[in-house]
Every structure is written in structure tokens, then in C-alpha cells.
Design goal:
Blueprint (H helix, E strand, L loop, with lengths): L1 H36 L7 H22 L1
Length: 67
């Protein structure tokens, strides 16, 4: 019987971690909604590199929040 309770507790813990991660993803999406809605128009290689850097930093910030 205690084995069953342990499995239930593990399942509930996993579900709670999923809900926390989901909340973080939804929060990040809401924060970045305007950023992501801006049209991406690239006219030069240097501008493309700059935009790539901006997008990369934005994604890095998300992954740092999830750790």
C-alpha cells in the first residue's frame, strides 16, 4: 500500500513541475508577444547578425529562467 502512495506522490510531484514549467513558458510567451509580432525585415548581413544576437539573448533569458 505504501508503494502505491509513493507512486501517487511521485506523479503529483511530476505534475506540479510540469505546471510550473508551463507557467514559465506562458509567461515568457506573453512577455515576448510584441517582440515576436514585429516583422523581421533584414536588409544587410550586419543587421541580420544583430537580429540573431537579439533573438539569441531572448531565448537564453528564457532557458536561464527555467533552470
Amino acid at each position: 500500500m505504501s508503494h502505491l502512495f509513493l507512486k501517487i506522490a511521485e506523479s503529483l510531484d511530476s505534475w506540479q513541475r510540469f505546471l510550473q514549467l508551463y507557467a514559465q513558458v506562458m509567461s515568457w510567451c506573453e512577455e515576448k508577444k510584441t517582440f515576436l509580432q514585429e516583422p523581421l525585415q533584414l536588409t544587410s548581413l550586419s543587421e541580420t547578425r544583430q537580429k540573431l544576437n537579439v533573438y539569441g539573448v531572448s531565448l537564453d533569458n528564457f532557458f536561464l529562467r527555467c533552470e
